[in-house]
Amino acid sequence: MPAKVACFERLSYVGLYLLKDWKAGRAHNESCASRDILIMQASTYLHSMKPVEERVLEAAKNLLVKHGYKATTTRRIARNAGVNEVTLFRKYKSKARLIEAALTEVEVNAHASFDSVFDKDKDTYVKTSIRTLGENLIQFTRNESDLMILQFTEGLRMPSVADALSSVPQKVLTHLTEYFQEQIERGSIRKIDPKIAALVFMSYVSYSQVARLLLGDEFIEDHEKSFENFLDVFTGGILESEESKQRGSAPKVGRQ
């Protein structure tokens, strides 16, 4: 296969950009050394194809997460969205309203992706069901890491931000509480306070995600093993059972 053809195939995933500007595409295609530049240009072009409002809200959210409310100026938002600053004020009237719209977008997207978390088989063995639920929640928090960052940073400084995003963790708590209450009524787990169980479960999931965001994946060396150990403590408790105590204290019978 000719080198140029092979190189072109490796760049085929940015074909939309090549169709827009074939001459530039051919120039880059002469050498794969310019692949990263081509990808960046293709990404910029595809971004420019998004509706203006979507680009503005996405830019506002990304800047909020990275720089915080104070440093997220309308000028920065306009530049990152590729629009004139006047367009922002024509649409949103003020920075506060624009940020509110961006936070609402974050919240709506989080709610939309939340439904799959509790998509579980209610007839499954309870420990398997709890494991699946935990795995789904951990994946949800990873997918919605922007939401968590905003809650833990801007939410502490600005009550309005915390209020705007509070419905998501509240929804998680409510659904978890209902789940544990249902398991109690079915006799799958002993009678406990379902809300406390939900809070404990949420605490581990939140902690593991916050630790990953702030300290990196290396802080918890083996996430799967850590989660399994948590499940063992959560479902089995920390106290040794009476049966285990009796086995441990039983006298050993030696040969006569």
Folded structure, characterized:
The chain is mostly helical and 256 residues long. It is elongated and about 75 Å long. The termini are far apart. It is built from 16 helices and no strands. 75% of the residues lie in helices and 0% in strands. The chain has helices at residues 3-10, 15-20, 22-29, 35-48, 52-71, 74-81, 85-92, 95-114, 126-143, 145-152, 154-157, 159-165, 167-185, 194-215, 223-236, 242-249. The chain folds into three domains: 3-48, no CATH class; 52-94, Homeodomain-like (Arc Repressor Mutant, subunit A), CATH 1.10.10; 112-238, Tetracycline Repressor, domain 2 (Orthogonal Bundle).
Which features would summarize this protein structure in a list?
256 residues, mainly alpha, Tetracycline Repressor, domain 2, 3 domains, elongated
